Predict the 3D structure of the following.
Amino acid sequence: MVMRKVGKYEVGRTIGEGTFAKVKFARNTETGEAVAMKVLAKSTILKHRMVNQIRKEISIMKIVRHPNIIRLHEVLASRTKIYIILELITGGELFDKIVYRGKLPENESRQYFQQLIDAVDYCHSRGVFHRDLKPENLLLDSHGNLKVSDFGLSALPQQGVGLLHTTCGTPNYVAPEVLSHQGYVGSAADLWSCGVILYVLMAGYLPFDEADLSTLYRKINAAEFSYPTWFSVGTKSLISRILDPNPKTRIHIDGIRNDVWFSRNYVPVQYSDAEEVNLDDIHAVFNDLEDLFVTEQVENNEIGPLTMNAFEMFTLSQGLNLSALFDRQQDYVKRQTRFVSRHPAKTIIANIEAVAESESLKVHSRNYKMRLEGVSSNKMSQLAIVLEVFEVAPSLFMVDVRKAAGDTLQYHRFYKYLCGKLEHIIWRPADGACKSGILKMTT
C-alpha cells in the first residue's frame, strides 16, 4: 500500500491533471479537513518560464476570499515541488450540468448568475479581472453553490496603466474590445463574458459559435445573435444590455443588480471581510525555489492498485451514501467520473486498452494508471484521458476517469462510448447491496 505525506497533509488519489500540474485529494491531519492539493514541479515552472505567471495566479487567489470563489488555504514547497492547498469542491463543473440537461430553468439560471455577479463584483472591487470566465471555470460545491476558479489569465491593475492590452480568454466568451487590440477595461470585458454565460445557461448553446474564426469575430463585434423562443422578455432585455458591443454603453454591475429580472429572489451572499490576507508563504516559496519547506514521505509496501482509504471514501460519497459510486448516470458525464467493477484489476486494464486501441488512441500504462492520447474528432486539438484503478474493498475496484487535455464535449462522447464497450465488466449492485456495504467500506 502506498502512503504519502506532504508536511501535515496526507495525500491520496489524483483528482485532476493538466499540462503543468496535478491535483490530488489530501487531508489535513491536524484538523481532519479534506482539501485539494495542486502539485507543480519546480523544474517545469523554470523550464517554461512560468514563475511570475504562477506567482501572480496564486497571489490573486489568496487576495479574493469570497464564498463564491474557490479558496486557497496556503502554499508549501519541497526541494522539487510546489504544493497549492485549495478548497475541495465536489460538485463538478457547471459545464457538465449544462451538457447533461441541455439548458437550465430560468430560476436556476438566475440563481447561478446572481452568484456569479456577486463573485465578479468582489474581484473587481479588489482590482482583479478574471479574463477567462466560462462555464468550465465555474465549479459547484456539494450544496450546489457556484465557485469561480482558474485565475491563470487574471490581471491586476498596473500603476499608471488604465487599459489592459493582452488578448486572452476563450474566443466564444471574449468581448469585442478584447479582440480589437486597442486596449480594454477589464471589468467591462468580464461582464460581457457573464452575459454569454447567462445565455448558455438558459439556451444550452452559445450565442456566438462559428467554426471559422473570422466569421466568429465578425458576429461578436456586431453582437449578431438571436434568442431562443423560450427566453422571457426580462431575460432578453438584460442580456441585450450586457452583450452591448460598445463597452462605454454596456451595463455596469450596479445596473445589473437593479435590473428587475436579476433582482427577483436575490439574496446577496453574506461574508466577513475582516480576515487579514498574508502573502508571506507565497513570497517564501517563490523568492528562492531551492528552499526546503516541507518533507515528503512515501511508503510503498505493496505493488498493486492503490487502496482508497476510509477518509477518501467518505469524502467521495459525501457522507455514508455510496450511491455516487454505483449510480453512474451514463448520460451525465463529468470531467472526472468513475465506474465500479468486480473483475480483477488486470482484466479491467486489458479491456480499457483494447477499447482505446480500437479507437487509435495511444496508450501509456503503468502501475494500474493509464493515459490515453489522440486527436479530437474535429482535428483541432489533442485529447488526453487519464484512468486509474483503485481497490475500494476486497475484489471491488473503482476506475477513476478524468480529462487531462482537450475538448470537454469530446471527452464526454468518449466516456459514454467507453462505458458502452465495457458494459460486461461494469458492476451495478442492487440498492440493498450498496447500503449493506457502506459501513464496511467507510469505517
